[in-house]
Design brief:
This is Retrovirus-related Pol polyprotein from transposon TNT 1-94. By secondary structure, this protein is α+β, with helices and mostly antiparallel strands. The protein is globular and about 80 Å long.
Length: 610
Amino acid sequence: MYCERNKLEFDPNQFNFKPTKTNTRFEEKSECHNETSSDSVDEASFVNDIFQNEIYMTEIPKTFKETQISPDKEKWDKAMSKEIKLMHNRKVWDLVEPKSNMKVLGCRWVYNIKYDEKNNVKKYKSRLVAQGFKQRPGVDFTDVFAPLVKFDIIKFLFVLLVCILGWNHCQIDVKGAYLYGNLDIPIYMQQPEGFAVKGCEHYVCRLQKSIYGLHQSGRQWNLELSEISYGLGFHQNELCNGLYSKSNCILLVYVDDIVVFSKSQSDLENSILKIKIKLEITELGPVRYLLGVNFERIGNSVYLHQNTYINKLKTRFKNLPRRRITLPLKVGCILPDRVKENEIIETELMRQIPYKTLIGCLSFIANRSRPDIAFAVNTMSQFCNGYTYHHWTIVVDILNYVFNTMYYKINLFDTHNTRLTMYSDSSWGCKLNDRHSTSGYIMLFGNVPITWKSQKQKCIALSSMEAEFIALTESVKCIIWYSKILKELNLIDFRMPELYCDSQSAIHFSKNNIENSKTKHIDIKYKFVRKLLYDKEFELNYINSKKNLADFLTKPLVKEKFLSVIKVIFQKYSVTDGAECWNSNELVQSLNESISLVNFHDVAEVTALV
């Protein structure tokens, strides 16, 4: 059967029109749970609710067949036809007769609904993806590396170029970016389902351009973009390969998302016009929503947050119990050791809870806009391969804390100076099960938090000085990289970066040639930091532990001390109507008036809340 209107070709008889969203897999699992003891029935029911909500909350089809029985069939058909038309215009493939020696890859449709920064439906997206997992290394592909600009660099340059220097900027989206890449190795693929050319159904596609799903597609697109950028007068930054610059313009590239910065509006429009000649792009205007992060303009300031993404999590995990949580992780919170497989009866049941999914979502938030949950998320991520119900409830606590503090936003215009300042800290032997220490650092540009990290140290430190020195080394590596980018761009007067540490012994060890039985095993890292200090690449100063801004990244803090850090990181801001709210006193008062914490780690109580 051939449908002229939608250019679809398929046989309706091959479809099973039984709804595919029926939870058949879980019906089988439920029978197994019924055989468990009566004490675990309520808990199993709770797991069922969570699991079903996590997997079946959306109506996005998984296969082409599902689109044909979807209520939004016409929208999906239109999206697929649009994708096929784009590929024909780009001459992505031509049809050839298959031969016995050909390695023919399969392909499939991938569907998604894209939303704007206000969570309104933006468009229905269909993408044809090759089954690149069937490619043979060394035969079908060789090099696959493609550079990506870090989001912290986007934040860093936004503060530098827009907030400090007042440059103009515009976000652009490259339509079908991977389809611009040229293939240097012949690759064959089946015709897309529903779009086989009539009379040539047995033919296969010989790919001329890179397509989504191939191992080398990202690299081929990046090579094409680099060539186009060079032709327009841009030069790729040696320290950050996703950054292209020339005298009056800078490009930041993250796959098909490009942010263009320019000194004047006319230069910006001229640069975009030249890019349009080479690439099919969509102008999105000033950055408002980029890579899952909101850039919200309130008055004369820009505030960074992820409320759009967090609101999606509210829908995604709507069956989870809600509590008023004021701290991401309580002081003295006892975490059970990581369990081994089959050691506890509940292990099989816990596999069905989306623990890793939720940790991934929280990590995304912690890394981009919420340093206040970085330590808690890092701690709980260490149990991904052996978590219990107790671990799960703590992770739910963290999620509820994020829901309750959505008004925390980073003011990108809080730049009273242009100096890089790093705070470093560690917690020695804090992991009771293996005695690994935790490193933490946070870097400010002016007063704006740019990058931060909370991380379990890979080796066991033999002293608190060694733990502090390991954390100090990671901090130095980070701040030196940003310092070099700042010097290479040469857009502002450079000031030597400052690094603060609350360990006198670690500072003394870094500045002096000390060798004794307690420190002789610390070799390369010691020489690395000492060499940079000798070359005056940064200043290393002491700071009292009570004033160390990185303290919250290494251990849970009591409420008063935690809030004192929050007041520095998340500055007061103006709401939409212009009224000022959440100054430091109001923030403390509001949180103190919140409902007191309840013991959320009781399985029976949590089950009763569902």
